[in-house]
Amino acid sequence: MTINEIAMNGSIKKPHFVLVPFLAQGHMIPMIDFARLLALNGVLVTVVTTPVNTARFKAIVDRANAAGLIIRLAELRFPCAEVGLPEGCENVDLIPNAQEYGAGFMEAVSLLREPLLRHLREQWPAPSCLVVDSCSPWAVDVARELGIPRFVFHSPSCFFLLAGRNASKVKPADPFEPFLVPDFPHELQVVKGQALQFFDYPGWEKLFAEIKAAEASADGLVINTFQELEAAYLDSYSKALGKKMWAVGPVCLVNKNLDDKFSRGDKITSVDEKFISSWLDERDPKSVIYVSCGSVAINSFSHLVEVGLGLESSSQAFLWVIKKVEMTPAVEAWLEEFEGRTRSRGLIVRGWAPQILILTHPSVGGFMTHSGWNSTLEAVTAGIPMVTWPHMVDQFLNEKFVVEVLRTGVALKPRILTMSISPEYEGLITREDVEKAVRKVCFGKPYALVVFVIGPAYPLELGLKEVNNDAHVAILGRTALSLASKKTKLYVISGNCNGVKLIKVEDE
Ligand code: UDP
Q1: What 3-state class would DSSP assign to 232?
Q2: Where are the alpha helices (DSSP H) in 153-285?
Q3: What are the angstrom distances between the C-alpha of 394 and each of 161, 174, 203, 259, 307?
Q4: What is the spatial distance between Cα 289 and Cα 442, in angstroms, rounded to a whole number?
Q5: Least crowded by CB within 10 Å, which of 105, 269, 357, 438?
Q6: Mean pLDDT for each 10-residue chunk of the chain (508 residues)?
Q7: What is the pLDDT of residue 274?
Q8: In this structure, which residue's CA is closest to atom 21 in ligand 1?
Q9: At CA 372, angle to CA 349 and CA 73, rounded to 5?
Q10: Does residue 8 sit in helix, strand or coil?
Q11: What is the dihedral of CA 294, 296, 300, 306, to 10 degrees?
């Protein structure tokens, strides 16, 4: 049975999917993309949101509605006051201090249960199914009360889900002692500190158990990835849980026109998007390294300085996003001088950048990333090699996937020294690390391995894409993935939805 058939719920002609995102940018952004994909396929979609979150993606939903897609918003009041959160703190990236407010935020999220149930009971047509982010197990009861199927939406990679699940069976005394992940499709060595599942940390035991139970009782799993990239992991994970899994990604590819690319996520930025576009237009093809650590990871002053000085000495043109919350007076003062020295080839965006627009611009040739899964998929689908600098949870395993399996990137720091990088950390990276990794990705031997056969929802739009010199990034399917494990260096592959043809392979 297809997901549509399950959701049809008998009498309703148009299936009505209710999407319940987790209120974090890295979870909401792919959920909104997924909503548009569903609507494009004739589904009526309701997205559960709160006022502050609505403001961030209203433009994109309005445009979709104007184009004839039916996406409704179930906007619920977020109960900040009830749990002692500052007003307006409706998304993970708005929590002023995770230690102090993290638990309150999760409690406020779970208080959406009753209002959501009331709201959905009044809807026509009645919801056919719920698609609930894995970090929002509170919505289990809503589906149960309404008597409709419920699917779990996984926003991280399947590589991470499988490795994290299987690694949890091993209990080493030292969190930094390497071990092999059991029952994994190929050899994978990790340390405990880099293979933890979401909320598998002291203090979050109850939520972690709820997440696991919600997954175990779900009617199926939906994941933002694609078969050709993660076939082996999808197969193993689906078998391990005894669940049907739908790989619906990469959902970011639904953003085709400039307006969508401009308005994805937050709009608060110091530089006008049109300026960013024209700045990139003026640069040579593949000459710019884009640097961003996603929506949540926060870097200390000293780490920002090392990144800046490393970029400066790499002689590479760069577009660097620094979050508003990282902009302390010390950072601002330092940046003033730094910008003076590097203005001819560097652009700093304070706040939020239109990432998809940047990654798909022809003048971008490398991406220094914190290895969030959305960012990773966005780079993979744009054919951009990465410098990986994971900060927390799934990002460490995403790095492994990119560096060791796909081989489309280099690690900024090959050895893991901490289980997360937060603003207090100093001295974990040096300017030399940054310079070396950036040079390797932008000027070094090509890392040409990017995989793309997009599911039937997407017309395949790629041809060969030059990475640098003689390398190409193109379409990889299962063939390429199996070759990757044999440590082949360069693949040049062309193809379309009907098949993938390997043109050339060079072994190391
Ligand atoms: N993003 C963006 N502009 C920014 C920062 C982030 O558009 O300045 C988007 C990015 O394209 C991705 C998402 O925010 O879709 C971040 O998700 P990811 O999983 O990469 O990292 P997280 O923020 O969850 O750590």
Answers
A1: helix
A2: 158-167, 205-216, 227-241, 258-262, 273-281
A3: 8, 19, 19, 30, 22
A4: 8
A5: 269
A6: 45 82 96 93 94 93 93 96 94 88 94 97 94 96 96 96 96 88 93 88 92 96 87 93 92 85 74 88 92 94 96 95 94 96 95 92 91 93 86 93 82 74 77 92 52 34 33 35 36 32 35
A7: 84
A8: 372
A9: 85
A10: coil
A11: -10
Rounded Cα–Cα distance for residues 299 and 308 (Å): 12
CA of 506 to the centre of ligand 1 (A): 34
Question: What is the C-alpha to C-alpha distance for residues 132 and 140, in angstroms, rounded to an integer?
Answer: 8
Residue type, 30: P
Contacts of 367 (CB under 8 A, 6+ apart): 289, 290, 291, 292, 359, 375, 379, 384, 385, 386, 387
How far apart, in whole angstroms, are the C-alpha atoms of residue 85 and residue 95?
8
Q: Name the amino acid, one letter, at 45.
A: V
Q: Residue type at 164?
A: G
Please provide the size of the chain in residues: 508
How far, in Å, CA of 382 to CA of 261, rounded?
13
What is d(CA 73, CA 54) in angstroms, rounded to the nearest whole number? 8
All residues at 6 or more sequence positions from 461 whose CB lies less than 8 Å from its CB, including other chains: none
Please say whether the beta carbons of 279 and 251 come within 8 A.
Answer: no
Q: Which of 156, 190, 230 is nearest to 484 (CA)?
A: 230
Angle, vertex CA 57, rays to CA 16 and CA 280, nearest 5: 130
Residue closest via CA to ligand 1's atom 15 equals 374
Q: What are phi and psi of 447, to 5 degrees?
A: -110, 75
Q: What is the pLDDT of residue 281?
A: 96
Question: pTM for the whole thing?
Answer: 0.87
Ligand 1 lined by 224 (C-beta under 6 Å): no
Q: Which atom of ligand 1 is nearest to the CA of 30?
A: 15
> Under 8 Å CB-to-CB from 127, ≥6 apart: which residues?
16, 17, 18, 46, 120, 146, 148
Query: In sequence order, which residues have a C-beta less than 8 Å from that of residue 251 and are 6 or more positions away?
Result: 30, 33, 34, 37, 224
Indicate the top mutation candidate among 295, 296, 371 to test ligand 1's pocket, ranked by most ligand atoms within 8 A of CB.
Answer: 295
Strands (E), 450-498: 465-466, 472-473, 488-496
Bridge partners of residue 180, in order along the sequence: 189
Which ligand 1 atom lies nearest to the CA of residue 355? 7
The Cα–Cα gap between 92 and 84 comes to: 15
Q: Which residue, chain included where needed, has tokens 């492994």?
A: 400
